[in-house]
Write a structure and sequence with these properties.
Strand order of the largest sheet: 1-7-6-5-4-3-2
Mean pLDDT: 90
Helix content: 25-40%
Number of domains: 1
Structural class: alpha+beta
CATH architecture: 2-Layer Sandwich
CATH superfamily: START domain
Distance between the termini: 50 Å
CATH topology: Alpha-D-Glucose-1,6-Bisphosphate, Chain A, domain 4
Radius of gyration: 16 Å
CATH class: Alpha Beta
Number of helices: 4
Strand content: 25-35%
Number of strands: 7
């Protein structure tokens, strides 16, 4: 049995939530840069565009010094939205542009009472060292717990 740290590190975070809101409402909250910014707590400089880099600043208290940068991968109306980003970027003086990125995906499905939203982030095993992988995985897992609460409150209010 191989007990290397590589074998123990998960490669994916996934959160599934049932939202009492129509799929069009959830889609708008996920893909409209201003609405996304409200619940995600980021001030984005412009709309999400496939193939382009989205820039902005984190507005979450205590993290306002952090830059937001993500490359939009796909937008399939009312079903799928994804972007790639550096899963750690806590030091605004460090250039993370050449670092491996994780893939964040939002999948939407209609349900009898609203929308099922599946949020996943994958690609942690490609990160450069064990401690950064584990930190990114732990911190982002906590972050997605918070973000699922935020989007729920945003679309159900």
């Amino acid at each position: 049995m191989d007990n290397s740290i590589e074998d123990r590190i998960e490669d994916r975070i996934e959160r599934r939530i049932e939202l009492k809101a129509p799929i069009a409402r959830v889609w708008r909250a996920v893909t409209d840069h201003q609405e996304f910014g409200e619940w995600f707590r980021v001030k984005l400089e412009g709309p999400f565009v496939v193939g382009e880099v989205s820039l902005g600043w984190i507005t979450y208290p205590g993290h306002e010094h952090l830059r937001w940068e993500a490359t939009v991968e796909a937008m399939e109306p009312e079903t799928y939205f994804s972007f790639r980003w550096c899963p750690y970027g806590g030091d605004s003086d460090v250039d993370y542009s050449d670092e491996p990125k994780t893939l964040v995906e939002f999948k939407l499905e209609p349900t009898a009472t609203g929308t099922r939203l599946v949020i996943s982030e994958s690609g942690f095993r490609a990160l450069p060292d064990d401690s950064r992988r584990l930190d990114a995985l732990r911190e982002n897992a906590q972050g997605w717990d918070i973000q699922t609460e935020n989007i729920t409150a945003h679309v159900e209010s």
